[in-house]
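Thread title: Can someone regenerate the structure for this chain?

I was given the following input by a collaborator and told the matching structure tokens would be attached. They weren't. Posting the sequence so someone can regenerate them.
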Amino acid sequence: MLCQALHRFGQKLVRGPAPKETVAENDPRRSLNTLDLVALGVGGTLGVGVFVLACEVVRNQAGPSFVICVLVAGLFSMLIGLYYAEISARVPHSGLAYIYSHVIIGELWAFITGWNLLLSIGANAVIFFHIFFLAFEHLRVTLHEIILPHVSHLLEDNLDFIVMFLLWYLTELWYICISSVIKMFTLVKILVLSFVIISGFIKGHLYNWKLTEEDYAMAGLNDTSSLGPLGSGGFVSFGFEGILRGTATCFYVFTGFEEIVTRLGEAQNPQRSIPRGIVISLFICFVLYFGVSLALTLMVPYYKLKPGSILPEAFLLIGWAPAYYVVVFVFLFFFFRNRIDLILLTYQLLHDMAVDGLLFPVCARILTWSILQHGIIVIFYIIAIIMFFFFGLTDLVDLMLIGSLMSYSMVAICVLIIRYQPERRNGGNESEVLEENGHIVERLTLQGLLFPGSPTPTPLSGRVVYVCSSLLALLLILLCLVLAQWPVLLSGDPVWISVAVLLLVLITGITGVIWRQPQSSSPLHFKVPALPFLPLLSVFVNVCLMMQMSAATWAQFGVWMLIGFAIYFSYGIQYSLVSN
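Best answer:
Regenerated them for you:
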């Protein structure tokens, strides 16, 4: 009796909806070609974060090894882009990771993904306000220096309001923009960062990667034997931990390419254009960010960057004041679309979760009120401004990254699971799959686990991969927790070493079981290579990076998840659309 009750409860947690009908290939709404998608991806990824977080990571977390942080974050962001590319072809629906999790791995994981995405989007909105006011301050000072000697006292008294209006106006351009305007703004962003890169190679010195304690002392920054917050000098100034912490922060600047997937219903030939759009846009952003990391660390000794510095200040430190003014003004273009994108993503995610019954139905009804569709912007601003006064910029980045890295891990696991699932028609159940594939009901045996008798996926092999993927996710988390105690491991503690070896053996064995299962042979224009190894590597790296967050950040995240689980287990599990 108890086993049956637990079985029914488990089925509720992993149930998912059938895939919905897709937009027809000849539908007039499909108007976006690959170039449009690349412009959307680059425009969404090249945001305001690079102007602030680059200096933050260089000064406080990684020093010159910021270059390695960008390299690692960029490569693994490319992998995440590949997962989105395949999964959007297999589940061709416009949406975020929540949609894919719901269809592939079930209701509970979809709720966790959606709830974390809400946290990530909310934190991102407050980060936007932090950077907005930081930009406002720099623009105000710059305009005071340039314009005040040539304007009347009337303009001088109202200069702050002029700057605020200019910033706000550019963030509102989304409402009237067209595709050509998006491409123009994206081009401006690329040109600005290209200018920073070229300047860095002109004014840069390799010596800034080999700074020593004497350099700090000569600069008047250190009069003791301890460098303290300045690190230990050299290229890896803050050690391996600094690289890990910096890599986690650098993931923030690579977020935004998911907007391409949300436009899947508008893309021409999506099975080709979506993968190309994701890969090309991420490659362009990676080249630009990697170039900026080289330029910044070569131009300026990292200890000269002050708290709250933004990227253009590097030009002041090398004596290029005109370049500083130009880049600060063009900083405005990086606010284009960021705010309104966040509002639209929040609106879409809340609506999807409410329609699916995972949030209270009143949310879906309220979101359809025309008066609230305009008022939600005001509500969004009020909540973001309140959070602005209670959270620092780095704390918000950490919260946002936990939500984003978790959703990215879910997408990697979704790709791993769906590649090994049997084909089924929309709404088809397991018995129909058995009949279509000509299989009889199978029994799980050790021989069948390692040597499956079918060359194509069966319901049994699909369930084996599902269970093994869940176990691997748990084991990888445990392994990361053990590896976080690396000083104890290096000291030769036999208990910790035995635990690490045992976990590695289990992970290797379960990965081998998945590798032996038959994969789907569906013809797709793009498939992620090296399954099951690449998705598992991505999950491992994501968990390692999440381990770099502070205890306070994890406490805040824990409170957020407790609220979410209370909503799901008190309401969502009983009244979800799938259960009815």
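Confidence is low (pLDDT under 50) at residues 223-228, 426-440.
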